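Problem 12. The chain below contains 165 residues. Write out its predicted structure in token notation.
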Amino acid sequence: MTLVFAISGIAVNHIEDWNPNYRVVHTTLPLKGVQQQRESAQLNQWVQQQLNTSYKIKTTFWESTDRYKIFAQDDINILVDLAREQAIIEKIEVRPILRSLNFLHLNEAREAWTYFSDLFALLLIFLSISALFMIKGKKGVWGKRGLIVLSGFSIPILFILLRSQ
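Solution.
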């Protein structure tokens, strides 16, 4: 459980830098002669024939006068760049382990997972508080180790104070 929350916690903390749930793979392929197909009603079929694909197309739209976007089945998008005469195939792949860990960490499972997660949190609270009193005397929490405990409290407090300014 600690690993589930630790690994997914790191992934979720950096969600602005990368997507921990999905990996996006881009493949660029040439599309010679695509300019002549601009006005064609058969543009979708022509692109698929040139790319040697047969994806079921969900929808399409013109992103700009030179960029045509095709949304296909199986999380595949094709961007046709008429100016550069190329197609960029974008395939979205699930990161199965991280996605599952994030699913649990973000409590998307709800119901029974909430109670299990709360129980785990209570056990961690008990563990951290009971650890304060395991070693007695000058080597305990009232001795040098008390500084470690204080630093454990002070770091989060410092971040809270900095945030509120």
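Discussion. The CA atoms of residues 3 and 101 lie 9 Å apart. Students who got a different answer should revisit the alignment rule from Section 12.3.
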